[in-house]
Amino acid sequence: MDALTFLIERVPIFAGIPEEHLIPAATASTVSTYNKGQTILFKGATVDGLYIMAVGKAGVFMKAANQPMAQVFELGPGEVFGETSIIENRTAGATIKAIEDGTCVLLIPQDAFRALMNASPEFSSRIKALIYSRKGG
Q: Largest CB tally within 10 Å, which of 17, 30, 108, 124?
């Protein structure tokens, strides 16, 4: 399955977004594969773009004061991460690790993600709503 078809058919946040807006993002995207335990994104790292889970599962790991790092959330196919860091111009707030062998992640580079946000008010609204919901709103 090509990136455009995947975004349209398997990623809820892109559902109904006009194809002409998605083509540049899909064309610019890359896919990386990770094995269980490999880090996809380190806390404090610059976020290169919007990460989209394609296959497998990833854990969101955080460390509370005086506590060991622990998994606080699980991401599966069709879910996204990295949006908050891009929109708020900050580094990653958590470490994301593959929790299954063969986990595949599609990455839409930051410039293509920002262009999609500008081209599609509906997509921009969905991303802002996702950020709000993740902050406990």
A: 108
At position 14, the amino acid (one-letter code) is: F
DSSP state of 13: G
Percentages of the chain per state (helix, strand, coil), in multiples of 5: 35, 30, 35
Each residue's pLDDT tens digit, 29-47: 999 999 999 999 999 999 9
Q: Which pLDDT band holds residue 70 (cuts at 50, 70, 90)?
A: very high
Helix (H) or strand (E) holding 40: strand 39-41
CA dihedral 43, 108, 8, 82 (to 10 degrees): 20
Edge-to-edge order in the sheet of strand 58-62: 39-41, 95-98, 58-62, 70-75
Predicted confidence (pLDDT) at residue 73 exceeds the cutoff of 80: yes
How far is Cα 113 from Cα 29, in angstroms, rounded to an integer?
10
Overall pTM surpassing 0.85 (yes/no): yes
Instruction: Write down the pLDDT at residue 100.
Output: 97
